[in-house]
Amino acid sequence: MTDITELAQRLKLEVHRAVSDFNPQMNIKTRDLKELVEALASEKRICATWRKTAESTGEKLEKAQETIAFQQGEIKALLSSLESRTVKLPDEVDVLLNHLEDVLPFEVFQLIDAHKWNAVSRLSAAGIKVEQLS
Asked: Where does the source fall among the domains of life (predicted)?
């Protein structure tokens, strides 16, 4: 394929020479004009192809963005449902601890109670609310 710029420069030079020399017969070859027209037509076809490709790609991008937005909404809803988890400790835990307090030495009871509160604080740190059943 011939470079359009080269063809246009060649024709421009011929026109410039004709005007400078006041030559009514310009030495522009029909072949050069034909090549320029063909090159421009080819470029026009290429531009049209790229335009169609860009439009198609734009439509695909819009659909992908809509899908992503929808999925983000679903993910946010799922996360909010996971973040609002609540664990309810059964009353038996407190009943057992009260019984152990009466039976076990105070130091052992304190150790067991500390483990309970350690577990509760870990659950809270993980975003899980801890409640007592009533």
From this structure: Bacteria
